[in-house]
Every structure is written in structure tokens, then in C-alpha cells.
Amino acid sequence: MVRILASKLRDVELITDTGVRLGWVYDLSFDEKSGELLVIVAEPDEDLDKSDFVVDHEGLLLIPVSAVRSVGEVIIIDSKKLAVKSKLRGIRRKTA
């Protein structure tokens, strides 16, 4: 297993597998009890329409770690696993 320091991920570019530039790594969010890495917090690209994406109160993108396909010079995000508001609305409707 290759180990990567969190500090090395700061400002690494996030791109979907379909070529959409999401932004750059700003921070990481962990579960306080388990230590599990939950989301990548990203500074969005200035051209990205954030209206469909899950963002925090500061407008930063919240990218689930489960959507990460690869980490290298850039981080590739699986667009099918990317949490977007339209998908979350559909889930709420189904469970309601």
C-alpha cells in the first residue's frame, strides 16, 4: 500500500473521469470516532456551476472519498459516485 501524506494533497487538482475540473483540495474531513476519511473538501473551480453539487456553508465542495478513482498528479473522481444534489433529492423522495 502506498502512503500519501495529507499535507501533500493540499491544492491537488480534482477532475472527474469525464474531464470536468471540479477544483482543488482544500481540506479533508474525518469521522471523529472511527478516524475514517469521509470527504475531500475542495475549493471549486471558478467556472464550475456549484448549484448541483453538495457544498458546505462556505461554498466549498464536499467530495465523498468513495468517489475517488485514483490519486496522483491529479485526483480523478468517478462522476457516477459523485454526490450531487439532484441524486440526493431522488434518494429522499424514494425513502419518504
UniProtKB/TrEMBL annotation:
Residues 2-81 form the PRC-barrel domain. This is Photosystem reaction center subunit H. It comes from Thermococcus gorgonarius. The lineage of its organism: Archaea, Methanobacteriati, Methanobacteriota, Thermococci, Thermococcales.
